[in-house]
Amino acid sequence: MEKAMIFHRAINEYAYGYDDQTIHLVLQTKHKDAEKVELIYGDPYDFEDKKWNYTVVPVERTGETTTVDYYKAKVEPPNNRMRYGFKITAYDGEEVFYLERGIFTEPSKEIGDYFCFPYFHPSDEYHAPDWVKDTVWYQIFPERFRNGDPSISPSDAAGWEEGVVTPKSFYGGDLQGVIDGLDYLEDLGITGIYFTPIFKSPSNHKYDTVDYYEIDPHFGDKKTFKRLVEACHSRGIRVMLDAVFNHSGYEFEPFQDVLKNGQQSRFKDWFHIHDFPIQTEPKPNYEAFGFVSRMPKLHTQNKDVQDYLLGVSKYWIEAFGIDGWRLDVANEVDHRFWRKFREAVKSVKEDIYIVGEAWHDSMRWLRGDEFDAVMNYPLVDSLVRYIEEQSIDQQTFKDRIVHLLHMYPQHVTEHLFNILASHDTARLITQTGGSEDKAKLLYLFQFSYPGSPCIYYGDEIGMVGGEEPESRGCMIWDETRQDLDLRTFIQTLIHLRKTEVGFSNEATFSFIDTTDECLIYQKETTDERLIFIINPTAEAIHVSDYEGDVILTSNEDDILQGYGYRVIKQVK
């Protein structure tokens, strides 16, 4: 047994309260080292004749990679407190006891040697809105979704879809256009809209905010936005706005005051200014988003900045009833601010959804006192590399997904914001080299994977576009130019997500090892199992026989065509 590969810590993704009664404990071992893992646990004060009374239960293996195996115990701690350790039995019969103070050959008699869960306070654990797990999101870039009120369009706005999209293009998309498009979204099955910024700004993307309390006049006004939120809510659609609190726009009044008054400005400590006078070229002498001089970084450790931004955060909930905040460049803002932000918005609306933009392992923000979720970029990266680029093989893909499933506590994974494309990436059909078949495989995996799926506007009808600004083209409303087959497929996936428990977060995800070249995984509940078969190659592949009802397939034959798929339902 490779003892150096055994790992557990009584924090974060390795030890957490899943619900108000249950604790999850996760253990790592070297791949195929352990034949059996058992949990030893008990109340730390429960002794009889100086002998600790404990219980021993088996621990389930929940994932395997080429290097490590994961095990998860689900236990209700006696009297809300617990000491515990792991008994590991190797295939050759060797037994070890893995405790906080080391590895033992027999159970330690010293209670202090064991891992400790001092007291289970549900209020200290991670809690996120339950509604998120059942939500299907649609991301809207407001300037490009629909022009509902040409009278407020920018004077230099081009005709819809006319010309080449540039970083400075305007087309007149607005909030009234979104209201006009709600029938379309409802028919698609959407239950949540994520808007990129809608606040006053000189740009088309609005990530350079001028006034956080005002709707951009080219998008509409507050009355229109209120009608939009009410119209969404009446259709069962949640609304999430984009908070750009890492940086402001160049025309933001406090920054303009600094430009005017220099060191005498009362706002000089709102930003990270290295010296005076202010310079923007060749690089700004103040901190900014990247080195973009028009996006000066806000000093969120400054109390006045905190008060201003927290006021903004609560205002749009109190005045308009929004349901979520997506946090731009969230990983570059200090943790103390985000803790205050969470307390502020949750005090107004307990079930508001908080999503941080982070492209990497984000456990430090997901401990229950900052975000509810992050945008799941590692998922789409692995999917595209495996199915489209074929730059990683099936085993590497499975390793990455198993690792991702254990990167966070289970309930965090169930609330992750799962995207395949966004305003920051190329469009999905472009990423797949124009292949609708590959795109369908990506969507099938996205909608059957734990978390909350999001569709980037227009991707459901096969819109194309490379990296920004190409991916921010105008929504195509002419059905004769839409990929209606792809749209129908996504509509079907949304329906299955809502009606088949195997597609939901209530089912457990795991891979099935087979000799087939296909990728095969299952979603399982106590009553049923869905088996997903994906052919990620251009070649036809014979599929092993699986009993059950076929509820979704690309073809009816035993031979699964290139980039084909099949979903089989088995009732236990």
UniProtKB/TrEMBL annotation:
<dbReference type="GO" id="GO:0005975">
    <property type="term" value="P:carbohydrate metabolic process"/>
</dbReference>
<dbReference type="InterPro" id="IPR006047">
    <property type="entry name" value="GH13_cat_dom"/>
</dbReference>
<keyword id="KW-0378">Hydrolase</keyword>
<dbReference type="InterPro" id="IPR004185">
    <property type="entry name" value="Glyco_hydro_13_lg-like_dom"/>
</dbReference>
<dbReference type="Pfam" id="PF02903">
    <property type="entry name" value="Alpha-amylase_N"/>
</dbReference>
<dbReference type="InterPro" id="IPR013783">
    <property type="entry name" value="Ig-like_fold"/>
</dbReference>
<dbReference type="Pfam" id="PF00128">
    <property type="entry name" value="Alpha-amylase"/>
</dbReference>
<feature type="domain" description="Glycosyl hydrolase family 13 catalytic">
    <location>
        <begin position="139"/>
        <end position="497"/>
    </location>
</feature>
<dbReference type="GO" id="GO:0004553">
    <property type="term" value="F:hydrolase activity, hydrolyzing O-glycosyl compounds"/>
</dbReference>
<protein>
    <submittedName>
        <fullName>Glycosidase</fullName>
    </submittedName>
</protein>
<dbReference type="InterPro" id="IPR017853">
    <property type="entry name" value="GH"/>
</dbReference>
<dbReference type="InterPro" id="IPR045857">
    <property type="entry name" value="O16G_dom_2"/>
</dbReference>
<keyword id="KW-0326">Glycosidase</keyword>
